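hey so i finally got around to running the thing on that chain from the lab meeting. sorry it took forever, my laptop kept dying and i had to restart like 3 times. anyway pasting the input first so we r on the same page abt which one it is
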Amino acid sequence: MFANPSTRGRAHHSSGCAGGTAAARWAAWCAVPLLLCGCYTARISETPRTATEELLISQAAEQAMKGIDLTWLRGKRIFIEDKYFEGYDKGFAVGLIRERLSRYGALITTTNDKADVIVEIRSGSLAMNTSQFLIGVPTIPIPLPFVGMVETPEVAIYKNEKTVGVAKFALFAYARQSGGFINAIGPDSGKSYFNQYKLIFFNWQRTDIPELQKGAPPQIQPDNIAPVIYGGGTSPGLTAKK
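ok and heres what got predicted. didnt touch it at all, straight out
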């Protein structure tokens, strides 16, 4: 018997439709994970210097200015000469010195021709040092062909990284008109520290910087305040620490 040609055509057409439907379903199921996946990229910008570095230096500057007696400038018109002051964070350190002089009762002028006393300030140090100690295997650079230099990961049993901020200031005062010597303070120095430790899987840190102490809010330790009276008014000033 011979099959009806029209029947064979319909059977072949039905088989093609079934195959196309299965392929479409398979493609749809493969597309589901792609639709459920997403990408998120957060852009984090970094400043040239870290906050830890800046806080170390500013904390050391504050320590260097603690306990300095400037009462001998009370009520005097002074001009602060900072051309001999160099170092990182110069703006913060010079501003700190100006603020301390003002709180002690000195009258700061904007130009030297209006001052009776010229106060030169200079810095011997305004920077930080870092040291590291490791018990374990340090990173080892290995040159690979067609790739370049590749570093192996560090394996530390015990490791510490110690960073110390150091500030050293000095002040020299002389009469503007005569140029005669009046007084000199310092050099006085101050230090701050930020130490990180690692023992296998345990990490901890030690620091005297309030902003970097874990679980402790920033605290301001004010100096002793005493009133300074001049020109018919009252201004806060500092008393020297004993």
